[in-house]
Design brief:
The protein is built from three helices and nine strands, in the order E-H-E-H-E-E-E-H-E-E-E-E. It is of the alpha/beta class. It has a single domain, classed as Rossmann fold. Helix 1 crosses helix 2.
Length: 175
């Protein structure tokens, strides 16, 4: 039995153009001492493309990752964030750019910003590829958003359904 295929919302070329555009907005706000903190696992695709786009603009950021889990293999957040792996690179006294794939409930991004701030970052900026509408106010608003997404169940470009479809080069909807 084959899996249902997602409806393509933005193509691979559109994803690349959105990443370039957000990198253009981020580059003037950071320096070469900035630590880009990727939120694993979903943020990996955006973080990789974003750090390369920043390098093309002369920003050679340092790279680290935080592994937070709030969804597990479900379609809805569990409402709590588990830290599975902490920062490995010192951020004390440096700017940090927390990078994630999708801003949904805001739980992961808020927790990551708090952890990075608590680790001594001089400034914490946040960037997400997709920002979904949410019915209630969220604790944090991303500083940079590449794409204002519809309120649909998204897959591809790091976003998944039970760990599948993260590697799609485009963004699709599964509803």
């Amino acid at each position: 039995m084959s899996e249902p295929q997602p409806t393509v919302l933005i193509s691979e070329a559109e994803v690349a153009a959105l990443v370039e555009a957000v990198a253009e907005r981020i580059a003037p706000r950071i320096d070469d001492e900035t630590v880009a903190v990727c939120l694993l696992t979903g943020g990996l695709w955006f973080a990789a493309d974003l750090t390369r786009a920043l390098a093309r603009r002369g920003r050679m950021v340092r790279f680290d990752a935080l592994w937070l889990a709030s969804y597990k293999d479900e379609r809805q957040s569990s409402g709590r964030c588990e830290v599975r792996a902490d920062l490995q690179r010192p951020v004390a006294g440096r700017k940090a750019l927390v990078v994630d794939d999708v801003f949904d409930t805001g739980l992961s991004l808020s927790e990551a910003a708090r952890l990075v701030r608590d680790a001594g970052a001089s400034e914490v900026l946040t960037a997400v590829f997709a920002s979904k509408p949410w019915p209630t106010e969220r604790a944090i608003a991303p500083d940079f958003v590449a794409w204002e997404a519809p309120g649909r169940f998204l897959v591809g470009y790091g976003m998944d359904v039970a760990g599948k479809m993260r590697g799609l080069p485009y963004v699709g909807a599964m509803d």
